[in-house]
Amino acid sequence: MSAPATARSVPTNATTDTVPPTRRSALDWRVRFVILSVIWGFSFLLIKVGTEGFAPFQVALGRVASGALTLLAVLLVRRERLPRGRRTWAHLSVSALLLNTAPFSLFAFAEQSIPSGLAGICNATSPLWGMVLSLVALSEDRPTRRRFAGLGLGFLGVLTVLGAWQGFSGVDAKGAVLALLASLCYPIGWIYVRRTLAGVPGSPVAMTGAQLILSTLQLLLVSALFTSAPTGLPLWPTLAVIALGALGTGTALQMQYGLVSEIGPTTAQMVTYFVPVIATTAGVLVLGEQLHWNTPVGAVIVLAGAALTQARPAVRRAA
């Protein structure tokens, strides 16, 4: 993802503004686009299932550990090394906290009390937060009227999803706030990455693998301090957490790298706008979550606002 910072639109390291060329897949890019949308859309369902058997920190730990193992296997096959340098690893430890440890934990805590579909919609607010932060932290990222309109529209969509006109009844306020805070972590993390790791040598896979290793260590410490060891490994929650990491945090990133390389970041990041739709549909059909009219309507408004905040002014060509 290195497009604007969204939870799903940019690879987890974003050390450069472009992704190095990768081998062309035998599958058509449209097929991979659909698969990627489904994987990331189902991630919120998998988090929900995982929390039924494990503490939130443990769900996040299993997720990053599985993802790290997946990417390390890829590095082994490619004979690539992890990044070097104390300074690089120090910056990666901060990016791991902001882009993996904190948001993954917050989403897991949030889904203890809110539907997985609502978590997926909250995740789509990352571009909105990103624009707000970029106005303060990135002086070269100038706002436009269209982007300001998108910001207002997006947050109107959030209020619609949460049912603000009826006093947010029916929605657990704490869970919704945690999910929104999780989505806020991503643009904060991307601004940090952009300022500290841009241009650092290393492939996206190597940088992301290192970041996930560091996140695993962070969550091992947090889990040891604040949770008790699980008494068992219930089948479905265990499989959900493994799939969440191996597919959603490992394999899917590989697919995203390939898409960015083949069709460009602008088209590839469109997967972001399918994720909340799939997350909501999966929650209703698989988990039996209730769906009120304001949820899909608000989601459409959020996505429209997010799309406007990512719009860039057209470059005028000389006559």
Distinctive features:
319 residues, mainly alpha, disordered C terminus, disordered N terminus
Describe the structure.
The protein has 12 helices and no strands. The protein is mainly α. Helix 2 packs antiparallel against helix 8, helix 2 (56-78) crosses helix 9 and helix 3 runs antiparallel to helix 7. The longest helix has 29 residues, at 235-263.
Secondary structure layout:
Elements lengths: L28 H22 L5 H23 L7 H25 L5 H8 L2 H12 L7 H18 L10 H24 L7 H23 L8 H29 L1 H4 L6 H13 L6 H16 L10
Helix pairs in contact: 1-4, 1-9, 1-11, 2-3, 2-8, 2-9, 3-7, 3-8, 4-7, 4-11, 5-7, 5-12, 6-12
Give a concise summary:
With 319 residues, the chain is mostly helical. It is built from twelve helices and no strands.
* Unreliable residue runs: 1-20, 315-319
> Mean of residue pLDDT?
84
Structural class by secondary-structure content = mainly alpha
Strand content: under 5%
Order of helices and strands: HHHHHHHHHHHH
The geometry reads as globular
Work out the helicity level.
55-70%
Number of strands: 0
Quick one: biggest sheet?
A: none
Global Rg: 19 Å
Question: How many individual helices?
Answer: 12
User: End-to-end distance, in Å?
Assistant: 34 Å
